[in-house]
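lol forgot to send this yesterday, sorry. struct tokens for the thing we talked abt
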């Protein structure tokens, strides 16, 4: 008998073949994965053993004596089964051969992602030891993983994750009885994939490639996932829509390598107290109303809004109300301290942003920008120029309201003087240009409190958030500038 192996199997396997054939076997194995590289040898071959390369119709048709095709792995998709069936050649696989190895690798990659091991290894090889403090590492304990496919591999991954202290959800509408018996009772079984996806910090995929499983992860399913979700595909590439995944990584839906969320894990990993049912009015609306009421009333009476006192009052109120709702005092205090620690990165960034804003005002950045545009201030160009000036000012200072305060007293009198002292369409357009430019620049600026709080609210990397918003904001800004330019020539 003659065996052709596109990649050699283990020595134990070679010895078993020889023993089973009483040594009457010729083995061709040169570790050259493509079966088409063995056409001369396959003319009289009895068996072909392949691993990773495609075994196409051309290779099969040129093997007239072939009696069996074996694939050292799980899945038939790399072999043209249709052509083999036409020629009466059975195709076999090795189910279960790599179950433990793949499961261990999936768990290892969850560790690698949580600790930024790849980037750390690359940077330390370059001599950059500062990488140790550049990115936070996270513990897997307390995180949630969703396992798609609870077969031999998926069930091992789920069981390992349970042992690591993770919350595990599993989805498999076709789970076998054997797999179910081997699955930990602590795994939460989900009937609907869409119900599982919003819960997961990690998603790992272990299902065969079929027409029904193609693009299991697509734009629609990704939209349901948490921001920053980490996806591990240990099945076939076709199960994940590549274009949708790349877009999700660009937008921050899937957290990029080395990304640093703006909030601490104390907030992202916070779990609700067991049995606690929040009341919308008592736990949300009433505290907000208390802050607004105290701030407004103190401003009316004392001409100074006592916002810090308002927040302190709400903290006391929430502490008492949560205890009355059955939450122990210790849990309330732990929640309070964890909330403070989790919000600290955003608070520090806001403080730095306000410092830069104050510095720019002291240096007269806004007045300097305005002085550069004096030669362009004609009635026709005025709306467009004012829009761009307001945008640059807001971007540089991170403040739309500061831009309004500086730009309005300059732009509106200028528009009035060009309109003969009357409220004309030009005056209205300039007013709108100041407001629109200020909001546009504020939205784009990494120094803006609205941008910082948006990054905090979505638990995303701040710079990633800025970069992902810029294409949309710049498109709208360019269209607005063009519209103001046209409008200026129409009404100027």
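and heres what i got for the seq, position by position
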């Amino acid at each position: 008998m003659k065996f052709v192996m596109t990649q050699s199997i283990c020595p134990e396997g070679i010895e078993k073949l020889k023993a089973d054939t009483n040594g009457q076997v010729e083995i061709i194995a040169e570790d050259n994965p493509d079966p088409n590289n063995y056409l001369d040898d396959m003319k009289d071959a009895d068996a072909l053993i392949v691993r990773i390369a495609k075994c196409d119709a051309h290779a099969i048709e040129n093997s007239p004596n072939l009696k069996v095709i074996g694939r050292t792995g799980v899945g038939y998709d790399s072999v043209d089964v249709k052509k083999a069936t036409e020629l009466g050649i059975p195709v076999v696989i090795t189910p279960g051969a790599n179950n433990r190895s793949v499961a261990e690798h999936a768990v290892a990659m969850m560790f690698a992602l949580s600790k930024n091991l790849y980037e750390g290894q690359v940077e330390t090889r370059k001599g950059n030891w500062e990488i140790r403090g550049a990115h936070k590492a996270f513990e897997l304990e307390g995180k949630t993983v969703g396992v798609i496919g609870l077969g031999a591999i998926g069930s091992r991954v789920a069981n390992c994750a349970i042992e690591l202290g993770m919350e595990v959800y599993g989805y498999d509408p076709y789970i076998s009885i054997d797999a179910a018996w081997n699955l930990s009772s602590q795994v939460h079984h989900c009937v609907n994939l869409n119900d599982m996806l919003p819960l997961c910090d990690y998603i790992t995929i272990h299902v065969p490639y079929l027409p029904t499983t193609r693009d299991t992860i697509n734009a629609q399913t990704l939209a349901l996932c948490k921001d920053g979700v980490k996806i591990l595909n240990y099945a076939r590439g076709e199960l994940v829509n590549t274009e949708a995944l790349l877009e999700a990584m660009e937008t921050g839906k899937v957290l990029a390598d080395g990304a640093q969320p703006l909030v601490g894990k104390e907030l992202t990993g916070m779990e609700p107290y067991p049995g606690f049912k929040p009341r919308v009015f008592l736990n949300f609306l009433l505290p907000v109303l208390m802050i607004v009421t105290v701030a407004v009333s103190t401003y009316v009476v004392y001409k100074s809004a006592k916002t810090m006192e308002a927040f302190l009052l709400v903290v006391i109120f929430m502490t008492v109300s949560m205890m009355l709702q059955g939450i122990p005092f210790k849990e309330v205090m732990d929640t309070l301290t964890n909330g403070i620690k989790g919000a600290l990165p955003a608070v520090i960034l806001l403080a730095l942003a306000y410092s830069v804003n104050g510095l720019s005002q002291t240096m007269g950045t806004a007045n300097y920008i305005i002085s550069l545009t004096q030669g362009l201030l004609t009635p026709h160009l005025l709306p467009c120029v004012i829009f761009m000036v307001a945008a640059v000012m807001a971007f540089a200072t991170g403040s739309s309201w500061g831009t309004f305060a500086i730009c309005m007293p300059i732009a509106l009198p200028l528009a009035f003087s060009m309109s003969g002292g009357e409220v004309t369409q030009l005056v209205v357009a300039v007013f709108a240009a100041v407001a629109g430019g200020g909001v546009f620049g504020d939205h784009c600026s990494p120094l803006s409190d609205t941008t910082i709080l948006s990054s905090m609210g979505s638990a995303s990397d701040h710079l990633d958030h800025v970069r992902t918003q810029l294409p949309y904001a710049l498109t709208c800004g360019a269209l607005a500038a063009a519209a103001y330019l046209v409008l200026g020539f129409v009404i100027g």
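The chain has 22 helices and ten strands. anyway ping me if u want another try
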